[in-house]
Design a protein that fits this description.
With 389 residues, this protein is α/β, with parallel strands linked by helices. Helices cover 43% and strands 13% of the residues. It has two domains: 253 residues, Type I PLP-dependent aspartate aminotransferase-like (Major domain) (Aspartate Aminotransferase, domain 2, 3-Layer(aba) Sandwich), CATH 3.40.640.10; 122 residues, Aspartate Aminotransferase, domain 1 (Alpha-Beta Complex). α2 packs parallel to α9, α5 packs parallel to α6 and α10 packs parallel to α14. It is globular and about 75 Å long. The protein starts with 12 loop residues before the first helix and ends with a helix. 47% of the residues are buried.
Length: 389
């Protein structure tokens, strides 16, 4: 029987009661005014100009790549991708005909290794770098932004599991030319399923709005939509259903947006609790396990506490003890993506020391707002006892 779940829903009973009350007004449920309201509220919280709500963080990543392809102007179709992340951080690049080049993991944050990244930048001169803010632990963004200025790449920031984290006072998701977020169950906030892309670049935003909804112009601001109508000689009768781009249907709904609007109101409390839990784990386990390191001025907002055992055998002992004592666990993210068939069937296996260690020795411990100090202590004791046995 599971006593401590790896993830718990941030949609609580009060949220459900509010949803029921709203549903009794028999509102429009599909995408409408509330989706726009959620996007604006998210912009206000994050501090960005444009946000495009969609149906998942995976779709958010797809939309970012597709927007780059649509807007054009890239010096080539090469993209540096992380070895530690999620399959849909990388898969859209493959699906849309980009040339993905895999990068080693940083020994501290487990994000892109800075030494290997610069080597790849020199060798390949890629147009794009895809960065994951791994598990809500901010990467070394001063160094990343310096490389961006030096080598002139477009930075895509996958912050799907990092909402609420910040680097030296600046929110994660505001560094990239575009940034993706996931509002899946168990993430920092949840809209049941959901994702969002944020950007300060209007050309990217216009592409995102069209690509999200079939490629039509109905979600654009009036001036931009009118300019397209004039460019292509479209009359008012046809205009709502003219497709300017080869888009998708990745829309969310006003039901999801209603939940999201309330979730944003709880964000600061959720950040505080996750940061406190993460610090407790680090204090108890930092001497026995390898955990992510981060700048002391940064705020961590992790959805799970990630750690590395000394070797695969020690991980087996720890995982067995956790399962026996009702603590849910799993591998660290997806480990090394370069060791998964989707990658090596096309490009061969990618092996690098840090990424491989994460793959073979990494695991997650629960970190959700409901856990108490005693809960964290009990889970840490299970791990420490397993290591000592």
């Amino acid at each position: 029987m599971i006593k401590y779940f790896l993830a718990e829903d941030t949609i609580d009973n009060k949220d459900i009661d509010k949803l029921i009350e709203w549903l009794r007004t028999y509102p429009r449920l599909t995408k409408g005014a509330l989706t726009i309201e959620f996007e604006k509220k998210w912009n206000g919280w994050l501090g960005t100009k444009y946000s495009v709500m969609n149906n998942s963080g995976s779709s958010a990543n797809l939309l970012m790549y597709a927007a780059l392809d649509t807007v054009g102007g890239l010096k080539n179709k090469k993209v540096i991708v992380p070895s530690v992340g999620w399959v849909t951080t990388v898969a859209p690049a493959m699906q849309l005909g980009f040339e993905p080049i895999m990068c080693e993991a940083d020994p501290d944050t487990f994000g892109l290794d800075l030494i290997h990244l610069e080597k790849l930048l020199i060798e390949h001169n890629p147009a794009i770098v895809m960065l994951v803010q791994v598990l809500g632990v901010p990467h070394k963004m001063d160094e990343i932004m310096a490389l961006k200025a030096k080598y002139g790449f477009v930075l895509l920031e996958d912050a799907c599991a990092a909402m609420g984290a910040s680097y030296k006072g600046r929110k994660v998701g505001t560094f990239g030319d575009m940034a993706s977020f996931s509002m899946y169950f168990g993430h920092q906030i949840s809209t049941i399923e959901g994702g969002i892309v944020s950007t300060d670049n209007k050309a990217y935003a216009d592409a995102l709005f069209m690509l999200r909804s079939h490629g039509w112009g109905k979600d654009l601001d009036t001036a931009t939509h009118n300019a397209l109508k004039e460019k292509y000689g479209i009359d008012d009768f046809h205009s709502p259903f003219v497709f300017y781009e080869a888009g998708y249907n990745l829309r969310s709904t006003d039901l999801n947006a209603f939940i999201g609007i309330g979730q944003i109101d709880k964000m600061e409390w959720l950040i505080k609790r996750r940061q406190e839990n993460h610090a407790l784990y680090t204090a108890r386990l930092g001497g026995a396990l390898r955990a992510q390191k981060y700048d002391k001025e940064s705020t961590v907002c992790s959805i799970s506490f990630g750690a590395l055992a000394r070797d695969a055998e020690e991980r087996k002992k720890i995982v067995a003890a956790l399962v026996e004592n009702g603590v849910e666990t799993r591998i660290f993210s997806a480990g090394n993506l370069g060791l998964h068939p989707f990658w090596y069937n096309r490009y061969g296996k990618f092996s690098a020391p840090m990424a491989d260690r994460i793959h073979h020795t990494g695991f997650f411990l629960p970190n959700n707002p409901s856990l108490t100090t005693d809960d964290i202590g009990a889970i840490a004791d299970i791990v420490l006892k397993a290591i000592a046995s």
